[in-house]
Design a protein that fits this description.
By secondary structure, this protein is mainly alpha-helical. Helices cover 78% and strands 0% of the residues.
Length: 216
């Protein structure tokens, strides 16, 4: 028995959008912390560490996020680890984010001019001080547009979490559509919500690109 689409359904979608935003921010922060470690490992002098991170990045970038999510949610049960939808979503998004941000930041670290590295050496800074005071501030500043732009991809990736039952926008939309059978209205509102979340991020990324690189 179907019913009409109502304003309560819109409110439900708006509440689901809050979870989408919160999980995206969590993945961005947690994935950023792991990604920084990945980036530093990629430029490490220890060859084994560099190659390990190359494998980590290739694995996560070379496989669909949906597969990674399903492996964490269902696959870990075979080794006795059972995670709820929230934990699985948070872990999967964190790993996915860390691989991409790690590679973005690695490129920016290696893009710091050689003269800056040499200046840090001349000043007698330790390896830690060199990165903390000279290299990372410059690299992270250059990486801001790409970093903010990737946040859009994180928001879009949350739409796949519906397959494990996480109550984000798409999952609630599926539930509402099952009882109203008005997919054009339901998924149309979903599209608007994703657009409203992602557009400011995209525009901010463009603004940073123009501001930092002097593009008119």
């Amino acid at each position: 028995m179907f019913r009409e689409f109502a304003w309560l359904d819109v409110i439900s979608l708006l509440r689901a959008a809050q979870w989408t935003i919160l999980l995206s921010l969590f993945a961005f922060v947690a994935g950023g912390l792991v990604g920084l470690a990945v980036a530093l490992a990629r430029v490490s002098r220890i060859a084994a560490l560099r190659y390990a991170m190359i494998g980590y990045i290739n694995l996560l970038q070379g496989t669909p996020f949906l597969i990674q999510l399903l492996v964490i949610y269902f696959g870990l049960t075979f080794v006795g680890i059972r995670l709820d939808a929230w934990s699985s979503a948070a872990i999967a998004l964190t790993l996915y984010t860390s691989a991409f941000l790690g590679e973005i930041w690695r490129g920016c670290i290696e893009g710091v001019p050689t003269t800056q590295w040499e200046a840090a050496e001349v000043l007698g800074l330790s390896h830690f001080q060199k990165y903390l005071y000279v290299i990372l501030p410059q690299a992270l500043l250059v990486s801001l547009p790409a970093t903010v732009g990737f946040l859009v991809q994180i928001v879009k990736a949350t739409s796949l979490l519906s397959v494990i039952g996480f109550a984000e926008i798409m999952r609630i939309a599926q539930t509402i559509n099952n009882v109203t059978f008005q997919p054009f209205i339901v998924y149309g509102i979903c599209a608007v919500l994703y657009f409203l979340i992602c557009l400011p991020l995209s525009r901010f990324s463009v603004y940073l690109e123009r501001r930092l690189h002097g593009v008119a």
